[in-house]
Backbone:
């Protein structure tokens, strides 16, 4: 089973999401991606956030675990604090930066106000529901398995 990590990054009541157009399918997901061989989840999280946003994760707390049947990834979703930054942008030398140049599978980070989050066409319904609930009632004290 493959593993992936995702980042919940909230600033000024806005959530950082990744807007995707994957071969004509438009949707939103959280910033993140696959854990590579030899990496810990935390190392992958730092790397993925840097590649997809240019931001540096300085603290991360596991909030949700999302299990999927093979061949899909198990996802480990972390609430992240990031160092001061000048916005979010795909890094040109990243895998996403390279895919963006071809146009068939694009990635674009976007800040969405948390009040508008429930209206997004989000990739996984169970995570979408858990995040919408957390924005209203607070994040869990222990990681929730979705």
Residues:
């Amino acid at each position: 089973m493959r593993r992936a990590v995702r980042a919940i990054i909230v600033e000024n009541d806005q959530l950082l999401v990744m807007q995707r157009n994957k071969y004509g399918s438009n949707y939103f997901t959280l910033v993140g991606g696959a854990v590579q061989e030899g990496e810990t989840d935390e190392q992958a999280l730092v790397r993925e956030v840097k590649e997809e946003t240019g931001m540096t994760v300085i603290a991360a707390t596991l909030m949700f675990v999302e299990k999927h049947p093979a061949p899909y990834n198990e996802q480990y979703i972390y609430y992240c604090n990031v160092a001061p930054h000048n916005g979010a942008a795909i890094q040109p030398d990243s895998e996403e930066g390279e895919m963006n140049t071809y146009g068939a599978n694009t990635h674009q980070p976007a800040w969405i106000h948390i009040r508008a989050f429930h209206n997004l066409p989000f990739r996984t319904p169970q995570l979408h529901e858990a995040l919408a609930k957390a924005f209203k009632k607070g994040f869990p004290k222990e990681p929730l398995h979705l």
Summary: The radius of gyration is 14 Å.
